[in-house]
Amino acid sequence: MKFVEELVVEEFLPTVRSMLAAELRERGFTQREVASVLGISQSAVSKYAHGEVTINDEIADDERVREHVDDLATGLADGSVTSVQALVDLEVLIRELEAGGDVLARLHEYEEPELADHPSFRVHDPTSELRTAERVRSSLRRGLRIIENTSGFASLIPAVGTNLVACTPDASTIDDVAGVPGRIVDVKGQATIPADPAFGVSEHVASILLAARERGSDASAALNVRYDPDILDALTADGHTAVEFDETEELQSSVGAAIASAPEATVLYQTGGDGIEPITYVLGPDAETVADDVRQVVSTGL
């Protein structure tokens, strides 16, 4: 099994770096200067110069690749293009070449021929449901790693457990929201994640996120932690706007009313009731940001 990203690393980058190194050398750059511009070692530049790095002819012969390499080499040589701008340009080119029918897509389907005949999606369509869902899960995994690596996070987990969720751009139901099956729990002082993220496994935290989005919040991720006034103070000190909602009322309307009263709110909280544990919900643009926001709270010593 090979991902298209592996082809980028194994085939595209060596080929384009070799082509850029050659073009820059032709424009009078020394090996040291080429190494500095491309962010590689001088020994790597030497290998490119002596043909010791295998290049992919299909990539090297692609007209857009040749045009980009020529334009970037010219810009890097005359100073009109920075290394960062060159990186952004190549990132955009890679996304274009991954689209169905383009060179990276063709190479990928050659490596994994079954992809070409899959009946339900085009894997190389950047807007496909599969790729959208996988981006959400990848974001969640990165957020969960932050949680796992945050010493003391378990102290914020409420009795009902914690979940970190994230949704697709057009989410409308809990099936469009991914989370941790079984929730994140405290096991001997360690935040423990029982399974890989999946869609449709979080009902409550997902419902909070969806209700907030329905009333205009641009959040795409949410995380619940225990309620504590000190936690709220730490979050507001970090720039969040907090608003209370009534857990005893119908969830969609109570969260909606809270967001309507404070559209910029990124923290929702309820102080509990008969048989209801008080909880704080942190919202954000993606799972990594939300996890890092809560990590900042932990760093205050709460």
Automatic annotation (TrEMBL):
TM annotation in the entry: none
Domain HTH cro/C1-type: start-end pairs: 20-48
A single GO molecular function term of this UniProt record: DNA binding
Protein name per the record: HTH cro/C1-type domain-containing protein
